[in-house]
Every structure is written in structure tokens, then in C-alpha cells.
Amino acid sequence: MATDLHAESLKGKLALITGCSGGIGSATALALAWRGCSIAVHYNSSKEKADALVAELTKISGVKAVAFQADMGDYDKVRTLHSEVVQQMGHPDILFNNSGTTNSVIGPSGNMQDVSVEEFENTWKVNTGSSYLLTQLCLPTMVENKFGRIVFCSSVAAGTGGVIGPHYASSKSAMHGLIHWLAMRHAKDGVTCNAVAPALIIETTMFANPAESLKSRIPVGRFGQPAEIASVVEMLVTNAYMTNKIIVADGGWTPSAF
User: Which of the four CATH numbers 3.40.50.720, 3.30.70.270, 1.20.1440.230, 3.40.30.10 does domain 14-103+115-249 have?
Assistant: First the structure.
């Protein structure tokens, strides 16, 4: 008999979403909460947005939500974030590594010399290192429980070079090797690992003032919406057969997955 895996799969689960006060994070939090998932709302500086999101999430029946502040460029604070989430809400069943930074934007025609190695390292630390550490911290309990969903927010820049710079593009492509290793290693443990790779999503901090000329890069002729990325994360979280995948959501910019 066919079973609707979506009907009950997230009830009673806890999702830790980093960068949750931003457009993609907020949209994903709401999508998962409507499926009965409680949300650990991480933010760095946007306390008002995080508190407003918590208030909205807790209006949903059975959903718990708490805001947690942490600078993702500081590994000790990342460790504290995980500890506080566990103490106040329990061990995460779902981890959406969504936080990130662009730092300098030099564009596809910029000069690599304009991005120092220190800025390169900071970009990697925020975008990739903190996600590695949080995954490392959350994974043992997921394996023990034989259930875990790990999703990374990559970028189309990981496969194309993108429009920000080499520091950002390389920090995102580095996620892909990590995802492939984790997915293969822990598939037998009930833990899936995937990524969504968006391009040019409006209503986000990273793409707050988009140049209209960039629309010419997008075959569908418009920028993406945070909810359209959230729907991909929702699919990856609710589908136990999807693992080891990078799902590109870019309006048709790239012709195939990478």
C-alpha cells in the first residue's frame, strides 16, 4: 500500500537553520514549520527579524521556535550555538547550513588581487568551515537515531564562477565534495546529505539591490523568490531517497546539474 511520506515525516522533528533571519532561511523555516517541524532560528545581527520570525512560527500549532545568536566566523561561537540549541530544544534532526557572506564583490571581470588571502579565509570560514563544524556536531545523534537530513545552501557560482568573486565561488564549490563524502558515508545510517544551489534570489541580504541587467542571464526572465528555494529544501528534507545531490535552482541559467 502506498504511503504518504510527507504527511507525518516532520512532526516532532527539530530543524536548525543558520542564517534563518534572511529571505531563504525564513521561507524555509515557515515551510518546514507548516509540516510540524520545530525551528532553531539562528541569526547573527538581525535580532528583530529573528524575533519576528519566532513569533510567526509559534503561531503554528505544535511548533516551537527559539532564536539563537552566533557569529559564524567564530568557531567557538558556533560550538556555543549548537550547545544552546541542544540545551533548550534538543538535538537537531535537520540541519540547513544556510548562513553565508559575500564579503567583497568584484564581479566576473574583477581582479583576484583585490581579494586578500585573509578575506578569502574569512569567506571560507563563514560559508564552509562553520557548516562543516555544525555538521560534525549534529551528525552523531542523527546517526544514533537513524534519521538525519543535512542540506547545504550552495550557489550556482560553485559551478559557473558566479558574479561575486573567486573567494565566494570557491567557498561554495568546496561544499560539494563534503556533501558527496557525507552522503556516501552515512546513507546506510538514515542520514541524507544534499545541497540547493540558487542563483539571483531577491529579498535576500546578498541580493538586496539587484541590477536589472542581470535578468538577461536568466532564461525565465526574472529573479528567483526565497520560497522557490525553500520548496527545494522541503523536498530534500521530506524525501528519504534523495541524497548525494546538488539541486540547481537558477531559472534555467545552467543547462544541467554540476
Answer: 3.40.50.720
The three grid cell numbers given for residue 32, joined into one nine-digit string: 518546514
Distance of CA 235 to the CA centre of its chain: 13
Does the pLDDT of residue 207 top 60, yes or no? Answer: no
Write the single-letter amino acid at 187. Answer: A
What mean pLDDT do residues 155-173 have? 93
Q: Which three cell numbers stand for residue 161?
A: 564562477
Q: What is the pLDDT of residue 144?
A: 98
pLDDT tens-digit series, residues 183-205: 999 999 999 999 999 988 876 66
Write the pLDDT tens digit of every residue in 77-117: 999 999 999 999 999 999 999 999 999 999 889 999 999 99
What amino acid positions are annotated as catalytic residues? 168
Grid cell 564562477 — which residue?
161
- Cα first-last separation, the chain: 36
d(CA 176, CA 164): 18
Sketch the domain layout of the chain as residue ranges: 14-103+115-249
Of 233, 172, 244, whose CA–CA distance to 24 is shortest?
233
C-alpha torsion sign, points 209, 124, 91, 244: positive
List alpha helices for the chain, DSSP H: 5-8, 23-33, 47-57, 75-89, 117-124, 130-145, 157-160, 166-186, 226-238
Cα Dmax for the chain: 61
